């Protein structure tokens, strides 16, 4: 469906939806997994043509990013890996397209950044709806076709609380102040609407707060099995408490170990197992060994591993997540969750097994209570709220996919001489702002000054060959 034809299709059926994200499996990060599920469930009913656009890394970057020495010689090999992973977890064929855009890994940011004009990944005749997963990340250094010019509707989905991470760095509050305004600037330029997964993220132009993520269906099935065991009077949850997350201090390990250290005497009956891998693993293990409490530290594993099925209590003190995936997974498995009363956890307040603390004394009280009691049975309604079916329903609603009308299709009434409406003025200011960003992002020295990877205005020869790209001059 062409862009012009799309303007005559306000119902939203047979739309082309292009989902751009900043990571891909086998990197097990939220921006690799959640957009993949979003693509699968949006395409499930066959009413939309869905394309998932993910970064392609050259071999030297794959080695740095992908776990267990998994690498790919061709994009088609990685696509096969992604589809198999998804089908094993959903039990359904993946009815969407996968396209790769060139990316490079920034070791400093621990992130994949786009290379060149990635809007070119989608042909003009299919440029209908664009979903930017992490819109700030995808637009910081964007140089080329303006997203709002290429696509008739651009929806941003904010995954990451970048300001919180930056605040923890040297000169963090100054960096966060600058980043806040840069994020607002680029998102205002490039997105018609923004979905913030929780209020833990910064307020942004034209944004709405709604959790549009679900859990892998495997976790719901695990929860059903455990519920069946409980109904039969079997001992379903025989282990105590655990936490799983990337093992870096900012993922809640610092807060957790501080809480345990302050209240070791009161928590003397607690045994806690920590699972994770990351840059701070050695330091976390050393800190845990200093405690009098039995705190065991293990390498990271898949949360769906049978090892975790029998744990009863999931403790997650992290406040840097926007919506914590592992918390949702633990609830889906029927566990009791102990977490901080924080905007990132607001979605979980509706579940009776989620207990939130406001201070360290409440943390102790709720943890001891959870160890001694059994979780409440999960209802069908609660399971649905956690599912990707419900998340997709919420996404379609708040993104207004069934109500989209192209601005170009609206009639323009005659105006008095020299009359300029506020809408036109705002649009002119936005156009000027977009032109400024496009100009600055095209200057190599300016890009480097703001943290871009050197020489990423165009794909290099290796990626051009691997992706079968033709070198072209960026359109503005």
Automatic annotation (TrEMBL):
Keyword annotations: Chloroplast, Glycosyltransferase, Membrane, Plastid, Plastid outer membrane, Signal, Transferase
A GO term, aspect molecular function: digalactosyldiacylglycerol synthase activity
Catalyzed chemical reaction(s): a 1,2-diacyl-3-O-(beta-D-galactosyl)-sn-glycerol + UDP-alpha-D-galactose = a 1,2-diacyl-3-O-[alpha-D-galactosyl-(1->6)-beta-D-galactosyl]-sn-glycerol + UDP + H(+)
Gene Ontology annotations of biological process type: galactolipid biosynthetic process
GO cellular component, one term: chloroplast outer membrane
Pfam families in alphabetical order: Glycos_transf_1 (PF00534)
Gene3D superfamilies attached to this UniProt entry: Glycogen Phosphorylase B
Ribonucleoprotein is among the record's keywords: no
Residues annotated as transmembrane: none
Record bears the keyword Chloroplast: yes
Top-level taxon in the UniProt lineage: Eukaryota
Location, primary (coarse class): plastid
SUPFAM superfamilies: UDP-Glycosyltransferase/glycogen phosphorylase
Residue ranges of domain Glycosyl transferase family in the record: 242-345
Start and end residues of each stretch annotated as Disordered: 455-476
Location(s), subcellular: Plastid, Chloroplast outer membrane
Family, similarity comment: Belongs to the glycosyltransferase group 1 family. Glycosyltransferase 4 subfamily.
Protein name in UniProt: Digalactosyldiacylglycerol synthase 2, chloroplastic
